[in-house]
């Protein structure tokens, strides 16, 4: 994309105006979805709600797309050109909401604690605005409403297998991000979100009486040693300029004060920004497990699985989108950050492996500066970020389509 063309300022102004007019509906939709969350792979009613939104519009709508309740909508200008795909995920989390908001979750044990309700609300309104503007662009816009982002294997892979990326030239995705101030967008080239491995392991020793350790083989001692030793993989085996984390988040050693535990169950999580780092951690972890067996005479059942890959933004497309954001005159966009990355993981990474993609973060920190992390039962968003998101993604999509 050396010869950069852009949609006209008038076309973008029209988009912004339409979004401003529809902002209250966007917020109403978001609050409705917030009250009715459904967890990954169970989002039947949410999928139906999304499909219903498009009723009466002359767009192609496909439901139950992929392995779950995905909805794919094509807005066709009727003229040849590029196809740009816009993705929004719509699943919630198995979290009991504690925000005390008047529109808090009505579904016990389920909560939109990652902001996917906002993603869906902004995308529906953006899709409607772009539909109304279909005389103003060439080519096609494919709206990808993706279920089950939160739970591996994730919803993206099934949609790709079903053909969602066929004919797609570029793809854009967004995560609204509470730790970033409102008015900021992060749009960075290269690796922007971490890949992830998950670990489950049982360390089996031999139970016995606390007063006679020589007759038993203490799994708690072996597991404790292992958890501490495994930390040296990141500190001693990974290049200090590379990012990696290794967390043992579950240590099930609960027993009785005078009983030597026969087995301990551990669960862990690894994050990395390069496949090479992933391989180094896995190799050393497995080596250490073997060493533990020899050293303590225990037996280890290990499950080590790498699920979501590193999310790599396409350099050329991302530079194009950065330029688009810088020049699109979006009043609410105060700061464009082109360097930040996030250590969380995202199954948008699968789309980005297949087609040139850009994934951005939009600041949704509440105005008082008090925020709770994503997945917290007290998680809240700044709804003002929703129209900004719609304008930014819409303007970038229109600019991409201007380059036939
Ligand atoms: Zn999440
Ligand atoms: Zn999320």
TrEMBL record:
Organism lineage: Bacteria, Bacillati, Bacillota, Bacilli, Lactobacillales
One Pfam family per UniProt: Peptidase_M20
Protein name: Amidohydrolase
Domain (Peptidase M20 dimerisation): residue spans on this chain: 195-290
Organism: Agrilactobacillus yilanensis
NCBIfam families noted in UniProt: amidohydrolases
């Amino acid at each position: 994309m050396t010869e950069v063309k852009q949609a006209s300022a008038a076309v973008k102004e029209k988009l912004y105006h339409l979004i401003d007019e529809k902002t209250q509906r966007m917020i109403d939709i978001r609050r409705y979805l917030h009250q009715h969350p459904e967890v990954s792979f169970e989002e039947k009613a949410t999928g139906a709600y999304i499909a219903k939104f498009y009723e009466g519009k002359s767009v192609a709508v496909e439901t139950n797309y992929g392995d779950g309740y995905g909805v794919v909508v094509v807005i066709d200008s009727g003229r040849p050109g590029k196809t740009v795909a816009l993705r929004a995920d719509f699943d919630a989390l198995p979290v009991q909401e504690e925000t005390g908001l008047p529109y808090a979750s009505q579904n016990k044990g389920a909560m939109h604690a990652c902001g996917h309700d906002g993603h869906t609300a902004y995308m529906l309104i953006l899709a409607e605005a772009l539909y109304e503007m279909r005389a103003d662009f060439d080519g096609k816009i494919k709206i990808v409403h993706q279920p089950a982002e939160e739970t591996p294997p994730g919803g993206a892979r099934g949609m790709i297998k079903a053909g969602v990326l066929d004919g797609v030239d570029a793809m854009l995705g967004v995560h609204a991000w509470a730790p970033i101030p409102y008015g900021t967008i992060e749009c960075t080239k290269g690796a922007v979100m971490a890949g992830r491995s998950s670990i489950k392991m049982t360390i089996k020793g031999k139970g016995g009486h606390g007063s006679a350790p020589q007759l038993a083989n203490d799994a708690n001692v072996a597991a404790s040693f292992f958890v501490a030793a495994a930390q040296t993989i990141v500190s001693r085996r990974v290049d200090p300029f590379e990012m990696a984390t290794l967390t043992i988040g579950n240590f099930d050693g609960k027993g009785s004060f005078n009983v030597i535990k026969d087995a301990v169950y551990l669960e862990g999580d690894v994050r990395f920004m390069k496949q090479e780092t992933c391989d180094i951690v896995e190799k050393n972890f497995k080596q250490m497990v073997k060493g533990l067996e020899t050293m303590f005479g225990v037996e280890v059942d290990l499950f080590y699985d790498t699920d979501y890959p590193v999310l790599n933004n396409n350099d050329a497309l991302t530079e194009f989108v950065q330029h688009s954001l810088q020049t699109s005159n979006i009043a609410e966009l105060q700061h464009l950050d082109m360097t930040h990355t996030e250590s969380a993981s995202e199954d948008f990474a699968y789309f980005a492996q297949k087609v040139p993609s850009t994934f951005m973060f939009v600041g949704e920190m509440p105005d008082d500066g008090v925020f709770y992390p994503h997945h917290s039962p007290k998680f809240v968003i700044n709804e003002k970020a929703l129209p900004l998101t719609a304008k930014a993604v819409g303007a970038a999509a229109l600019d991409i389509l201007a380059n036939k």
